Amino acid sequence: MSLITWTKEQFGTNVGVHDEEHKAIFGSLNALHEVAAKGDRKAVGAQFDQLVDIVAKHFASEENSMSKHGYQAKETHKAEHDKLVKTCLDLQAKFRAGQTEITQETTAFVRDWLTQHIPQIDRTYGPLFNSKGMS
Ligand code: FE2
Ligand code: FE2
């Protein structure tokens, strides 16, 4: 069973490009959740790297939309992004050094972050971006 499932009701921002990015993140996170259960360290590391990469690209994409459209809360929104990226990069470094493992606790943490951030924070850009022609 998937760890997280995208539905319009729970996660829709009304901005198609960012919804698609969120769906891709969910796919990557679900894949990590599955490999983490099997305990193949190399596969876990590769899947975590992929997740961190698409999350970082997504944040840059949202921040680019924010700058382009004059979103007022960009700094506080970006601060949330930066905090998650830092947590992930720290974990990646520790994992590579053999000091920690990436487990289903890790994937649950990321799921919880997304479950808060997308509905509560991302959704606030929908009306502004829609008014600027993003749908
Ligand atoms: Fe987002
Ligand atoms: Fe965001």
SSE diagram, text form:
Elements: H1 8-11, H2 16-38, H3 41-69, H4 74-96, H5 104-120, H6 126-131
Helix pairs in contact: 2-3, 2-5, 3-4
The site of one fe (ii) ion has 6 residues, from helix 2 and helix 3.
Characterization of the model:
The protein contains 6 helices and no strands. It has a single domain, classed as Up-down Bundle (Four Helix Bundle (Hemerythrin (Met), subunit A)), CATH 1.20.120.50. It starts with 7 loop residues before the first helix and ends with a helix. The protein is an all-alpha fold and about 140 residues long. One fe (ii) ion (FE2) binds next to helix 4.
Let me know the largest β-sheet: none
- What is the strand content? under 5%
Q: Helix segment count?
A: 6
- For the CA atoms, what is the radius of gyration? 15 Å
Shape: globular
CATH architecture classification name = Up-down Bundle
